[in-house]
Amino acid sequence: MKRRSFLQAASLSPLCLDTSDSFVKPKEIIRFGICADLHYDLIPDAAKRLGSFVDAMNQQKTDFIIQLGDFCMPKESNRPLLDVWNRFAGRKYHVIGNHDTEGGFTHAQVIDFWSAKEAYYSFEVNNYHFIVLNGNEKNPSGASRGYPRYIGQLQRQWLAQDLASTKLAVIVFCHQGIDNDVDGIEQGVAIRRIFENANQRAGYLKVQMVFSGHHHQDYQNLINGIQYIQINSMSYYWAGEKKNTTTYDMELLRSYSYLSSMLRYKDPLWARVSIFSDGSAQVNGRKSDFLDMTPVQANLKESESIYPVVSVVSNRSCKLAHV
Fold first, then answer.
1. Which residues contact 321 (CB under 8 A, 6 or more apart)?
2. 57: phi > 0 → left, psi -120 to 50 → alpha, else beta; which?
3. Which residue(s) pair with 75 in the sheet?
4. Beta 280-284 vs 271-276: how paired, if at all?
5. Would you kindly state where each structural domain of the chain is located, as residue ranges?
6. Which residues face 30 on adjacent strands?
7. 73-127, pLDDT tens digit by residue?
8. By CB neighbour count within 10 A (0-12 exposed, 13-18 middle, 19+ buried), where does 165 fall?
9. pLDDT band at 321 (very low <50, low <70, confident <90, very high)
């Protein structure tokens, strides 16, 4: 890279150049809380789980909080959950998940119920540009099965234009993994190319991190310099036909009929993300145990789940800026 390009990159990306002989502790530029896949409609203690997250983020004075989807359906009976969410004193942001529209609800109804901004949008905090994508659009080819997990042409055009419009470093949020070819965004490679093209045009690592939920797992992928980090569910791993054998009260099962298909986590999982002036980032997660049954007891094999089934959001250290 030429010296002029290097200096431009250094001024626009979170890279701190130390010209002295003494070590200067990097400054924390931004701190935010992130959670995913609460599934209020499926979990008996979901409100309590969310309350623990909100209280912790208030105590840690994060700049904002964001949930990555599969939060709750827009039913009036779910209003109490929003009261818990709104206990957070700062900014709050939402990502739409595939289960949030179950029961015939539309994206617009979900947005209105949550008082969210839009189905996809961007915002800025502390000289960082954040992008929220909606991965729940229908593939016009009609070839896909199951829940929609597609980002259409209009949203792709908006994404490219939004990236071009900012000179700030960028972090992206999407419900489904853009790096996951199993059950993630269809044509995820096309979305990744939009990120990579933006980085190439900028001449530095402009799009730095992409956070997702949906998969109820814990992993990290580095693709062409961009960190893709999966945030585990706050509540459980879906075991499906590998049903756990826990005996539940019949009255509880009448209200929460899917419990026998879940491997619940004893404690709620989430993460706090900190980004520093030297171009580093720290993801501080949480560890729990399985409440009812372990993956081994449910005979879950890694060949089926691809990534390990674990009750943790891992601590991670990332180097974001490069030249």
1. 13, 14, 15, 204, 205, 208, 278, 279
2. alpha
3. none
4. antiparallel
5. 26-236
6. 275
7. 999 999 999 999 999 999 999 999 999 999 999 999 999 999 998 999 999 999 9
8. exposed
9. low
Identify the helix (H) or strand (E) that includes residue 229: strand 226-230
Task: Kindly report, residue by residue over 45-68, the tens digit of the pLDDT.
Answer: 999 999 999 999 999 999 999 999
Contacts of 185 (CB under 8 A, 6+ apart): 135, 149, 150, 151, 174, 176, 177, 178, 191
CB neighbour class for 113 (10 Å; exposed up to 12, middle 13-18, buried from 19): buried
Whether 96 and 65 have beta carbons less than 8 Å apart is answered as: no
Model confidence pLDDT, tens digit, residues 178-226: 999 899 999 999 999 999 999 999 999 999 999 999 999 999 999 999 9
At 9, is the pLDDT very low, low, confident or very high (cuts 50, 70, 90)?
A: very low
Contact assessment for residue 232 and residue 286, using Cβ atoms and an 8 Å cutoff: no
- Residue 303 backbone dihedrals phi, psi, to 5 degrees: -65, -25
For the domain made up of 26-236, give the CATH fold.
Purple Acid Phosphatase; chain A, domain 2 (3.60.21)
> Cα(193)–Cα(10) distance, rounded to whole angstroms?
23
Helix (H), strand (E) at residue 55: helix 46-59
Helix (H, G, I), strand (E, B) or coil at 103: coil
